[in-house]
Every structure is written in structure tokens, then in C-alpha cells.
Amino acid sequence: MAKIMVVDDAEFLRVRISKMLSGDGHEIVEAENGLRALELYKSAKPDLVLMDITMPEMDGLTALKEIRKFDPKAKVIMLTALGQESVVLEAIKSGARDFVVKPFDRDRVMNAVAKLLG
Questions:
Q1: Are 46 and 70 in contact (CB under 8 A)?
Q2: How many domains are there within the chain?
Q3: Which of 5, 9, 28, 110 is a Cys-bridge partner for 18, taking CB atoms 3.0 to 4.6 Å apart?
């Protein structure tokens, strides 16, 4: 299966998504903020990234842009809270391939992942 990086400052959400994806056979790498995600992306080379937008150290939008500079083909799905539509549009313009609104539905996450992994 795929190597997927889950990036969120909320540990319970990282764990929830990680369990969901590892239960489907994926290898999981976790990061608690955008800065750590950027470091890990370069060493772990994940096939896909699920990343929150609002985080300390470096927000998801900045991390997305930096990851895409490093790897223009990076597949990133943004995790967003309701009411962040303008930020989602900016993320899509910056190269995010999809977004999932929190609180998320398991099927929505799994479908987004499956779609991007082909």
C-alpha cells in the first residue's frame, strides 16, 4: 500500500486518521506541525499527505507551498474546519489536490485518499 503522512497539531485527530489509514494497509508517518511535515517529507518521501491548515510553527498553507517547491508532484489533501473556504481556495491554487472538511466522515477521507492514489 502507500506511505501517507498525516499532519495535524491535534494529536487525537492524527491518531484517528492514522488508525483509519493503517487499518486499510497504509504505512503512516505523523507530524504535529508544518515545519516538522516539511522535514519529514524530505526524508520519508510519502506518496500522499493529509495536512491541517491551522497549526503552530508553520501553517499548512505555507507547508504545502514549501513541499510543492521541493516536490512539484506532491499529492496533498488539506484538512479544514468549516468556514475556511477562502483558505481552501488558496490551498487549491497552491497545489493541494483535494480537501476534507472537519469533522470528517471516514468515507470522505478514504475516497479522497483512494482517488489520489489511483
A1: no
A2: 1
A3: 28
Whole-structure pTM value = 0.94
Name residue, grid cell 515545519. 35
The Cα 31–Cα 8 span in angstroms is: 7
Q: Please identify which residue in the block is written with the cell numbers 497549526.
A: 55
- Contact between 50 and 100 under an 8 Å Cβ cutoff? The reply is yes
Range(s) of the domain holding residue 65: 3-117
Distance of CA 51 to the CA centre of its chain: 3
For 6-55, the pLDDT digits (tens) are 999 999 999 999 999 999 999 999 999 999 999 999 999 999 999 999 99
CA atoms within 13 A on the CB side of 19: 6
Q: The domain spanning residue 102 has which CATH number?
A: 3.40.50.2300
